[in-house]
Design goal:
The chain is mostly helical. The protein has four helices and two strands, in the order αααββα. Strands 1-2 form a two-stranded antiparallel ribbon. The longest helix is centred in the N-terminal third of the chain and has 20 residues. The model has no long low-confidence stretch (mean pLDDT 94).
């Protein structure tokens, strides 16, 4: 199986599994999955978030997802339990499709590492 085919298969597995677990089978999109990863990384599942905090959750997820690629590194957790990251290297300019592929690959790798999927 080629790398692209493997990514497509694993991405479908992630979407299906998360959609069934969190969206009653409705298909979650990329942003929703990034948001769920941010929630997981923050670990404060028993509260509601304001709009700006939801964006912060997505930022946490993006930093966590792109850490293995060398773009971010973990810095510290603040007094409210929110993780902070520093930029190690600027992201290259990517077309929308390239951004999507990078994020899908990073998400698949995240869920493989956490053993959510194989």
């Amino acid at each position: 199986m080629s790398r692209d085919e493997e990514l497509k298969t694993r991405w479908k597995d992630v979407v299906t599994k998360l959609s069934n677990q969190f969206a009653d089978g409705d298909t979650l999109d990329l942003d929703a999955i990034i948001y769920l990863i941010g929630l997981q990384e923050l670990g404060q599942l028993d509260r509601t978030f304001k709009k700006d905090q939801k964006l912060d959750l997505m930022h946490i997820a993006i930093c966590k997802l792109l850490m293995p690629y060398g773009y971010y590194e973990f810095d510290f957790v603040d007094e409210d339990g929110w993780p902070h990251y520093t930029v190690k290297e600027q992201l290259p300019t990517l077309k929308a499709g390239e951004q999507s592929i990078l994020m899908k690959e990073a998400i698949v790798n995240y869920f493989v590492e956490t053993e959510y999927i194989k």
